Amino acid sequence: MDQLTIVLIILALTIIAFMSGKLPYTVISMGIIIALIMTGIMTIDEAFSGLTNSNVIMFAAMFVIGAGIVKSGLLDSTKNIVMRYQNRPKIVLLVLMLVATVLSILTSAVGTMAILLPLIINIANNLNISRSKFIYPVAMIANIATACTFLGQGAANMNWSDVMVNMGGPVPFGIWDFTIARIPVIVTTIIYGVFVSQYLLPDIPNSQFDTGKPVVEKTKTIDVKKQRIAQIICSFTIIGMIVLDYFSLVPMYIVACIGAVLLILFGVLSEMEAISSIHGPTMFLFIGVLPLSDALKMTGAADVVASLMRTLLGNTTNPYIIMAVLFVVPLILTQVMSNIAAVAVFVPLVCSVAVSIGIDPRAGVMAVLIASCTSILTPMAAAAQAMILAPGGYSMKDYLKCGFPLVLINTVVCIVVLPILFPF
To answer: Which of 3, 315, 390, 419 is surrounded by the fewest CB atoms within 10 Å?
Structure first.
């Protein structure tokens, strides 16, 4: 049995394990790692590489920053503003999704959810509305809005434009093209999240989350002086993550770690409070999913899919068929592997295919960038989705039930709009 087949079997078993809802996330994660090692797909160092991944490190640090934000009293002020709309939960969700949109543009989906999770949980408890109704829609827009400008993860956008030009694309992207192209799907996602998602998500009583609440919610209050210190540290950490990373001075995960350490040094959090704020099952889940994503790329699974994409296109010149293939194939792959990996694989491929059939590749490349951020159908699709699995009490079925209709809508929007914005 070749390595590709083995990895696909591991992937299938992982999906089944998630869908069953019977196994703890830590067991699924360790099962992935052990399977990759025992089958010889990866060495021990490669299989456990998630432990040293910068996203995982930032992930852990941002849980601590989130705990500091809770201690600072900032959430209480925000909560009081939102509580004015306590009888209008749709407005509350709209505000949360708009805030998530801005934060994800400035940082990343992971950083956004780490910042907002404590706030969402706090608001849901005070409104006596299931947190499950709020968390997934906010994570949806955090993923989909990421990298829609030149800020945050979008700093790499112009690099993909250079790749496209180097492979024969006649016209480079303008710096605002990435924003203009993403606006339609951001708007549809917010509308869908506010008006539709509530009917498709589980209504789990918040009392059932007692054992899963971040421990920081149960910690002792601190005096006003330390609250001010916490506000300064958390504010400068978030601003520093945005500014220093944008100018390539200090990576975001380093800034997050510095902020987490300062919260302990200044007595805002005790060592145990900081450690307890990090949600172990979610961390382990992400650590296991990362090597599986790498294995899919290493064993050539993406190449197999790419070959299929060429076959599907054939000699067609129909722009809608071309866009459907160029959007849907990376969209499917990004549900089980890193969106960054999906972009790295498919941008050069789409450029090659487009140039070979004599069309401007801009619409195709933009389709790949948007499709790779529409990673919302499985907890393996993106770090932010893994992050919300336990706090939201979701199952694999919930991801598919709520996310699939939106994916269909955004697919149609992109197939229609992108060839208009970037004519073939």
So the answer is: 315
What distance in Å separates the CA atoms of residue 332 and residue 74, rounded to the nearest whole number?
A: 39
In whole angstroms, give the CA distance from residue 13 to residue 363.
Answer: 35
For 111-156, how does the pLDDT look when each residue is reduced to its tens digit (9 = 90+)? 788 778 888 888 888 888 999 999 999 999 999 998 888 765 676 7
CA pair distance 387, 215, nearest whole angstrom: 16
Q: Containing domain of residue 125, as a range?
A: 5-421
Q: Which tokens go with 2?
A: 């070749």
| C-alpha separations of 72 from 217, 268, 284, 339 in Å | 12, 8, 28, 34
The closest alpha carbon to 380, from 1, 13, 5, belongs to 13
Res 284 pLDDT > 80: no
Contact 105, 90 (CB under 8 A): no
How high is the pLDDT of residue 275? Answer: 87
Helix segments in 218-318, DSSP class H: 224-246, 252-265, 271-277, 280-298, 301-313
Q: Output the six-digit token pair for 387.
A: 């992050």
Token pair of 48 as six digits? 């456990």
Residue-wise pLDDT for 353-376, tens only, equals 787 777 888 999 999 999 989 999
Ranges assigned E (strand) in 268-421: none
Among 331, 339, 321, 329, CA closest to 382? 339
Domain count, the chain: 1
For the chain, first and last CA: distance in Å?
43
The CA distance from 190 to 206, in Å, is: 24
From its phi and psi, is residue 147 left (phi > 0), alpha (psi between -120 and 50) or beta? Answer: left
User: Residues 103, 111: contact at Cβ < 8 Å?
Assistant: yes
Could you report the per-residue pLDDT of 196-217, keeping only the tens digit for each?
999 999 999 988 885 444 444 4
Cβ atoms within 10 A of the Cβ of 29, count?
Answer: 27
Q: What is the pTM of this model?
A: 0.73
Residue 171: DSSP 8-state: S
CA distance 221 to 268: 9
pLDDT tens profile 69-123? 778 876 666 666 776 777 788 999 998 999 899 888 876 788 788 778 888 888 8
Of the pLDDT bands very low, low, confident and very high (cuts 50, 70, 90), residue 289 is confident
CA separation for the pair 271, 277 (Å, rounded): 10
Please report where in the chains the tokens 């160092």 appear, as a residue. Answer: 45
Rounded mean pLDDT of 15-36? Answer: 81
In sequence order, what DSSP letters do the residues of 9-54 get, joined into one string?
A: HHHHHHHHHHHH--S-HHHHHHHHHHHHHHTTSS-HHHHTGGGG-H
